Amino acid sequence: TQPCSYLGLFIGAKPNRLSTWQTVISKAPTGVISQLESLLKNFLWGGDDGHRKIAWVSWDDVCKEKHYGCLGVRDLRSFNLALLGKWRWHLLMERDCLWVKVITSIYGAVASLNRRVGRKGVSRWWYDLWNIEEGATITCNWFSKECVRVVGNGRNTSFWRDPWCTTKPFCERYSRLFSISNNKDMSVADMKLCREAESGWNWCWRRQLFQWEQSQLSLLMMDLTCVQMDDTNDDSWKWSADPSGLYSVKSGYYIIVNASIFAEIPLHKFIWCRLVPSKVSCFAWRVMLDRIPTKVNLAKRNLLLSSNSGCVWCNQGLDTSYHILNELICTTYTNNIHLFFNSLSH
Is the pTM of this model over 0.70? Predict the structure, then answer.
């Protein structure tokens, strides 16, 4: 008999074995996710292992939220990345914990957001954790762009590399000044001079600035005018995508999945009404996206000749969603009413 499991761990398993914790700390294998998504797709479109039907809507659109005109099915890859984002958040927030100190002693500093780790000399978990923003299907910098550094005494915040004053780090916003700075690794506290100083900041350049670089420095100084430091509090992180300021898997998943969406679709409230059967709502959703098997849509997928795209009911137009559900139904309904009143008159 198979042993029982709880929260992904087998009850009675030896805790000192790596295989016991592998399913909890490791990223889900791509092959497993593909097989699970294949089952979901076949269920949605009515296919099976021996016969696949047409997928009328891309899987990325199926997984987006309903109020954006999609189905809201959970995307397993994105959800897995959102779970790994929770580990990244713990690394940023729990610097004094024992497990973070152990990892720091092995791999070095872990508080950087835009650090990239190669495969050589690191564990698979560590590589996956530090490359959750990589990939063509994932929004660029979905995690780091939502992490905002809240400066207290400024001792643990990098002046150039952390996004503590603006949404982008100064090393990206003023890349030219960063390239010629001799203080690339200084903290905010080390860069900050006493208020009586002429500039207030400890600038140190490897050469004299050009005129256009002086203009860049002036813009940088304007960004720093609103900086207020608090020596009584330590630096911390804030997750801007959640009202609580703390990272949540829900908010991380929402950012990844709905990244390419620009506006809500107001019809979703009427389509996904609880009083309407699910089958009717799904059909209305496909009509809204023009994803029903009309002759025109079949011709677009090279399943039918374009010359055979005419309507078989009226022979007066193309077989499109609008024609079938609007023009043809209205015409048929009007003709039936006309025939009904004619029959009454005789």
Answer: no
